Amino acid sequence: MTSINEKATTLLELHRPGNPVILPTVWDAWSANLAVSAGFQALTAGSHPVSDSIGKPDNEGITFDELLHRISQITAAVELPLSVDIESGYGLEPARLIEGLIGAGAVGLNIEDTVHSEGGRLREPQEHADFVGGLRQAADAAGVHVVVNARTDLFVKQVGDESDRVDRAIARLKLAAEAGADVLYPVGRHDDATQKRLTSELPLPVNAIGLPDQDDPASFGPLGVARVSFGPFFQAALAAHAATLLGRWS
After folding, report:
1. In this model, does residue 183 exceed pLDDT 70?
2. Which Pfam family, giving just one, matches this sequence (predicted)?
């Protein structure tokens, strides 16, 4: 069995700008095994699909313990490195989050700046960076280099004027980088010029979101992307196929 430290190192090393790692976003052992069978090197677990799979809403509609229960099932079923979307942290301290993730066998995390437990407010840039720093310090103390993917929701929430949104996202994510992030995630669908600017001006590997049934996998490398994940869109694409199949019989 690969050790958790080896998995963490492997996950980090897979992030190569221009030659992105594709991390299918899974939600249970079944979907994780689908991805393993298809030959992928690592996985993500998304909050939205995990929540959907147990009949609860996204945006911290499940508890951290409920998430960890599902993550433990995934890591028991597959050996691949797994990164977990922990939304904005469920109102918990970084040490508790890191302890729970490592205990469940995960070696990476997404942390977003929308605070769902406080009405969906956006953390201030330094506030978010400080939370990222707390996660890095907690991981260091635990002896596992958990891969921290710092996310901003400026684009998906369309916060502030569009004219300087890219500038503000870059400034916000640079603070997260300085605080100890490994990967930066300006989540949203960007045109090629914006994506190139983000990957060229941000100091760390950049995560982009991909639509598995629509996007060309080869399109992300030339834009400088280092990581592609699917968010809720893999589950949604499977649901659409399932609706077609079931519709023949209903």
Report:
1. yes
2. PEP_mutase
Distance between CA atoms of 153 and 1, rounded to whole angstroms? 37
Which one-letter amino acid corresponds to residue 226?
Answer: A
Sheet hosting strand 207-209, strand order edge to edge:
21-23, 227-229, 207-209
Looking at 153-229, which runs of residues are DSSP E strands? 183-186, 207-209, 227-229
4-247 falls under which CATH superfamily? Phosphoenolpyruvate-binding domains (3.20.20.60)
Amino acid in the structure at residue 30: W
Phi then psi for residue 47, to 5 deg, are -65, -40
Q: In sequence order, what are the beta bridge partners of 25?
A: 44
Pairing of strands 121-122, 114-115: antiparallel
DSSP secondary structure letter of residue 160: S
Neighbours of 236 (CB within 10 A): 16
Banded model confidence at residue 166, pLDDT cuts 50, 70, 90: very high
Do 225 and 17 form a contact (C-beta atoms < 8 A)?
Answer: yes
Of 180, 179, 176, which Cα lies nearest the Cα of 152?
176
Dist CA 217 CA 59 (whole Å):
28
Q: Which residues pair with 175 in a beta bridge?
A: none
**Domain edges within the chain:** 4-247
pTM of the model: 0.96
Q: Please state, as a whole number, how many other Cβ atoms lie within 10 Å of the Cβ of residue 108.
A: 26
